[in-house]
Input
Amino acid sequence: MQIRSKSLPQRFSLRRGIQGFVAPSQGRSETSHPLLVFSVVVLLALFAILEVDVHTAQLQAIGLLGHGTGIDPVFLSP
Output
């Protein structure tokens, strides 16, 4: 009696399932939805702002950011 692995048929089944989600190109160029592009740009900008905010002290130490000497203290957060 031969023992067969079930992982190989499951792998092919999973592969077919994933390929079912991908729309086949029908001779047209692949374009992204404008709202998706806008969302990605906004999220990347927010991520960049947060990263700079988190690493402000390190960026000031290596001279990439100013020390804030020209900013009026009224506009600085407590």
